[in-house]
Specification:
Rossmann fold, 4 domains, 5-stranded parallel sheet, alpha+beta, Arc Repressor Mutant, subunit A, 13% strand, 5-stranded antiparallel sheet
Length: 625
Amino acid sequence: MKQFERFRLDTANQCLLRDGVAVALAPRPFAVLRYLVENPDRLIPHDELMDALWPETYVQPQVLRTYMLELRKVLGDDAGQPRFIQTLPKRGYRFVAAVVEGGEGKQQGTVKAAAKAVVTTAAASVAVRDAGIVGRDGELQELRAQFELLERGERRVVFVAGEAGIGKTALVDAFCREIEEREEARVGRGQCVQGVGGTEEYYPVAEALSRLCAGRDGETACRTLWKMAPAWLAAGREGDGVRGAARERTVGELCGALEELTADKPLVLLFEDLDWADEGTLNLISALARRRAPARLMVLATFRPRKHGAGHSLKVLKQDLLMRRLCKEIALLPLARGAVSELLGRELHGKLALVAMPALAGFVYQRSEGNPLFVIAILEHLIAQRVLVRRNGSGTGDWELCGPFPDCTEVEGGVPESLAQMIEAEVERLSPEEQKILEAGSLLTVAFPAWAVSAALEMDAGEAEEACDALARKLYFLERAGQDELPDGTRSAFYVFAHGLFREVLYQRQAATRRAKRQVRIAERLGQLFAGREACVGREMAMHFEAAGEWGRAVNALRGAAGRAAERRACGDAVELLERALRLVGYMAGSEGEAVKRSVETELEAERNRLLEPAELTGNFSTKA
């Protein structure tokens, strides 16, 4: 545990705390911050940072800059007057804040504050365990706190936000099951459906009323609706929306009826996927939140944050209610590594050797980035691939690891089918041109520049950037992350996929021939941008040529990069690049391949000899770029 100013870095649980409260931080930015904090007040070159975090994997510099932007936002840091992370242009980064070890004694008060923010009541913890969810004790306790206010007559509106698969439904299910089993409240549940919100007004409201009328206290609900809002009773009984009665119904009547229902018992209206809700449903929620009369009424809604289009009216409503302090938002963050391990143990019924669980949890955590849906899908994928198998072929025996984990750095490593289908469904909603833009971006890493899209698709650079900007405004899984200055002085924006799995699906859905042509165009464009200095980007060019099966061009690019590394006296890098080139030569057939192989072997041997020469003869040099 390391502390700097208001922050504590909990390396054991892979989380960042600010004043004892967990801060949302994805695994990769966390890894960057951890390396900086563990090496304070020291210049860390770009290459060192990338080599330490992504060994043997090429990562574009844009990715690192993206993570720095995210870290500065989380820390409240200013690049111009840094308190935490100082940027030294073209050199690297330095962590400038004072770092102390977070042991016992004087840190005890802070530790207790952090524990208080995370640890919940026994009742909430039991509910979480019984519901089969992990890592959500604090969120469930917050819902219980809101319910306690509700029981005192304070109407509540609570939004539960999070990305797809983060566990919103599991959380509200656990909460509603708890209060229903104790008969503490009535619950009416409605589901907003994509595509229906624009054509059938009050669809989720009708479903919620139907559930109330068919529930344990259904007779009371029907009687109250008949008395105070008869035009809504048909929807409550049939659950078929507003057909035939839309003109007769008013929001005020329904608000009054719902408030009347809370006279003898609190009422919870649960609306799921509110980002797909119609305007009428949102107007009803707004009215229920703003009415001043006391009522033991809670509107509990889940939603996935969106940027424009679907969900935009919800964003306006939520911001207005937050500003007026008429609602509470609970944002679900990715699970910490410890919670992922607990979830895996639960799914495997604890029947995996303890020595194997840390390795499994580490792999799944890195791959899933803490998304519970992704955790389960990846686990099922490992079982299907027989990486995890039952001992002795038994269907009930203990689990054991029977093979290496797939290489997370390889795009072709495979995406679990269930996740691939989910992501494909998101992509298929886009136009063919928009899909091409995303596919072209996936040819790099999780971050990609607009100029690469332009090169891959042979588009005008300005048009490519405009298209990428439009998608970043539209899609929740794509963000504009900044700008790069190119060697010719022009600037090009770059973008980041929210999760590496989105990038992998987009990469794999392209036909191999089409993908190869696009890779070659990107490599050639790199060469044009760095004309006369191609060796500076030889590694990057080789990556694209290799992906396209252009072995000879990939070998030449690597040899150029190795020569530049040798000139900089980075012999270790030169040897690594030549060894990689030698492996690729094996794919080249005929006499030409043999000639290239001998030439590369000669260069490799020379660099190895140079590396082994005594330091007093060669001078002091780093073995890393």
